[in-house]
Amino acid sequence: MENQTNQLFFTSESEEVTFFADLILPIPVPKLFTYRLPRGMAQLVKIGARVIVPFGKNNGRVLTAIVAKLHTSPPSGYQARYITELLDEYPVVNSYQLELFRWMADYYMCCIGDVMNVALPSGLKISSQSKVQFNPDFDYPELLTDFEETLLAELKKHPALSYEELGRLVGQGGNVPALIKSLVGKKAVIVFEEVKEKYVPKMVRKVRLHRNYEEKEQLLVLLQRLEKIPKQQEVVMRYLRHVPIQHNPELNQKGLDKTILNQDDEISQSSLSTLIKNQVFETFEIIQPRFSDNSPATQAEIKLTEAQRTASQQIMAQFESQNVVLLHGITGSGKTEVYIDLIQQALAGGSQVLYLLPEIALTTQIVVRLQRVFGDKMGIYHSKFSDNERVEVWKGVVSGQYQFVVGVRSAVFLPFDNLGLVIVDEEHETSYKQHDPAPRYHARDVAIMLAHWQQAKVLLGSATPSLETYYQAKQGRYGLVELFQRFGNATLPQIVLVDTKQEKRQKTMKNEFSSILLEALENNLERKEQSILFQNRRGYSPYMQCEDCDWTAECPNCAVSLTYHQRDAELRCHYCGHKEHVPRLCPTCGSTKVKTIGFGTEKLEDQLQIFFPASRVLRMDLDTTRAKNAYQQIIQEFEAGQVDMLVGTQMITKGLDFDNVSLVGIFDADRLIHFPDFRATERSFQMITQVSGRAGRRAGRQGTVLIQTSNPQQTILQKIIENDYKGLYEEEIQERENFNYPPFSRLIKLTVRHTDKAISHQAAERLAAELTDALGGSRVLGPEEPLVERIRNQFLFDILIKIERDKVNVKAVKAYIQDRINDILTDKGLRQVSIVADVDCL
């Protein structure tokens, strides 16, 4: 790549060549933009480096762009503007990533700028701010008003000021933009963009003795001199206890964190300041990695059971002929230990490793286990990290500091260039699919493509694989290894179906809890064992309703009811974030009979505290885990036995490992099973099996799972009891083939949006008709209103396209669909319509 860059610059001395760069801009435009390289920059810029460029009318915006290509051909149709600044001496995006960006834009029907915007951490993107400075050439003070004179007087005191700073200084914040506009017209000021890089290294201030006192003789003289100033002498003595330079003078150059001395109550801070002022001590700063507190590896190797060792060997054997292998291992079989063994082998061979997890909740617990093995050689990458932390991991991969990274779906964008192994744990999880914004990618599929380009191997792991993945394995396209023995000879839990319809007839239900579940919880508390309760709905109640007139609290922006959150005493929309106070009276009829209907995790937590007041209950859902370290704190407390019951949404179904959990209760299983989606049966099996697998993971004790249902005879529940994944697969795959659903077809969902329902419907009808004419009625379904037909005041219509995998040129179909979308978006009557394409929709 670098050779390609340098070859452009071999020209004769008499020949002057103008160089151009095709840039990826972080905006939703379909093509690259060509910019001109300033003469002094031409031999420095490299493909994959970041540059700053002006964009928009009158260069009004400043954007961070990635150099995708260097050449000598000017653009046609517009005058190329100059690149403003080069940010990187070396590329931060490598050739594999650029290839990935292009492929994702093409495959997921979006713009390459959308991909770049999601791929790069915010800290690698530039922020800009308008600044104002006095024009030294201005010499017409008689043209100024009083306010303008005041503002100009302030500007003369500073090199430059922002609009906000000027507003504070002159006390006329609302008028500042108009004043600046007037002053620009009079050529009294200059407005420019100050560009700043968001990433800021973490600096640590340290203190050390001046070099004059490093040797023993000088140090003794110093201590004797300070005998008359005991407080200052004590500061020096305290420093020497932390940094024993009397035994090794070289230690002094590393110094001591100033915070250590500042926090010492025995030290006089004024004495420390005096010693610094008198050059006994000197202060300095160093850049400290934000992950420097990672513990070193404490375990050289792990001990595999015979079953795990066999699985690891089979996977390695499969990798001889297959690039992708599925590890189908039941919950609690110890798949993580197998992963660690394979990671160690890959790292020993000099390759990089990416380990993907679907949820931050999983990374919290697994990271601790991995750090015991890999220490600070391992990077961690997920959205709860700050911008600066993510940039440090990114740069750590570029520099080679991190050969192994564990992270969530966005980790597929990291700048790996020597991947040997990619592990996608819980590959069936829907969390790997991004829904908004574009690109609406699936991290599992992107990881497979990334591995393909780098000739790496991919291991997909799951106790309940997606039907698509298992089908590929059964067809021989993927390797298949099975691990059906629980670690430590622990047994699978006993699953019991609780008939809630019968309990309601017998009036033994207490709120949402059956008598059987309450008794089991009480017995568990007596045995000092822990319980997990699963309800896949957060909040206190799904909605509030008036008993007299049937009024229901609804979101003004979306076609959904507002969810009641008791702790914050408010109604919330989980689609747009709208919030309202809880009404004391019905807004429609004035009745006082406004009641909550249904239940969520918050209500279950509240009821458990009433039933078992002496117990300790925690809740883990989106509302309780918004803070950066909230996941970690909840998991640590539960793991340490400080909590008796954990209530949660699907977060608690994913791979968590607690030895003392012997009971799992599952609420509202029927709602999962009967959700109107062709994947509902598969998803129900996966979710209920996964959360059931949290019980009885310790050898010698069988756990219990209680599933509350109004219809215990449902076939899917019997398959869950029998842990019959293969039986489920055989039934579902036949159904999928009959109706041409994945894995026998690819799905593309087009969602048409507009604030006017009639216009949205018109655009959707036209698009569907044009697609039907070309593709046929069997391949185009809709348009239909989705379950939630209005979100953020936009009316939605869905069109579903089914494309056979082996009979149709998918790339040509996507190009045709995009052309039809463009026709609608350029129609004057439909210009405000937006159309979102979701490839491989879930």
TrEMBL record:
Q: SUPFAM superfamilies in the record, alphabetically? A: P-loop containing nucleoside triphosphate hydrolases
EC primary class: isomerase
Q: Which UniProt keywords apply?
A: ATP-binding, Coiled coil, DNA replication, DNA-binding, Helicase, Hydrolase, Isomerase, Metal-binding, Nucleotide-binding, Primosome, Zinc
Annotated ranges, domain Helicase C-terminal? 581-739
Signal peptide (residue range): none
Determine if Nucleotide-binding is one of this entry's keywords. yes
SMART domains, alphabetized: DEXDc, HELICc
Q: Which reaction does it catalyse?
A: ATP + H2O = ADP + phosphate + H(+); Couples ATP hydrolysis with the unwinding of duplex DNA by translocating in the 3'-5' direction
Task: Please give the coiled-coil regions recorded for this protein.
Answer: 511-538
Sites binding Zn(2+) 1 sit at C546, C549, C586, C589
Q: Which InterPro entries match?
A: DEAD/DEAH_box_helicase_dom, Helicase_ATP-bd, Helicase_C-like, P-loop_NTPase, PriA, PriA_3primeBD, PriA_3primeBD_sf, PriA_C
Q: Name one Pfam family in it.
A: PriA_C
Q: Where does Zn(2+) 2 bind?
A: C555, C558, C573, C576
The EC number of this protein is 5.6.2.4
List, for all copies, the residue spans of the domain called Helicase ATP-binding.
Answer: 316-483
Q: Which metal ions or organic cofactors does this protein require, according to UniProt?
A: Zn(2+)
Keyword Membrane found: no
Q: How is the cofactor bound?
A: Binds 2 zinc ions per subunit.
Family membership: Belongs to the helicase family. PriA subfamily.
Per its database record, what is this protein's job?
A: Initiates the restart of stalled replication forks, which reloads the replicative helicase on sites other than the origin of replication. Recognizes and binds to abandoned replication forks and remodels them to uncover a helicase loading site. Promotes assembly of the primosome at these replication forks.
Instruction: Indicate the quaternary assembly.
Output: Component of the replication restart primosome.
Q: Which NCBIfam families match?
A: priA
| The protein's name in its UniProt record | Replication restart protein PriA
Its source organism is: Spirosoma soli
What lineage does the source organism belong to?
A: Bacteria, Pseudomonadati, Bacteroidota, Cytophagia, Cytophagales
